[in-house]
Amino acid sequence: MEKKQIIFADGMSFYPPNEKAPDFVIGKIAVNIDKFTMFMAEHPGERGWISIDVKKSKGGNVYCELNTWKKPE
How many separate domains does the chain show? Predict the structure, then answer.
């Protein structure tokens, strides 16, 4: 089985909440408009939508990955 290639969402970053944030705050997503616009143009999802997954690496770093799953035909 071939290992899936991770496509990082260029121009998008996730940050955990600061220590003073209330419990209902999960984190913050920051978007560099120019970089993310180019990323979206390179990965034009179906019907004008793309999905981004927020994941944690084995090393504990959080990252944003393009979700490339497609419904089987």
Answer: 1
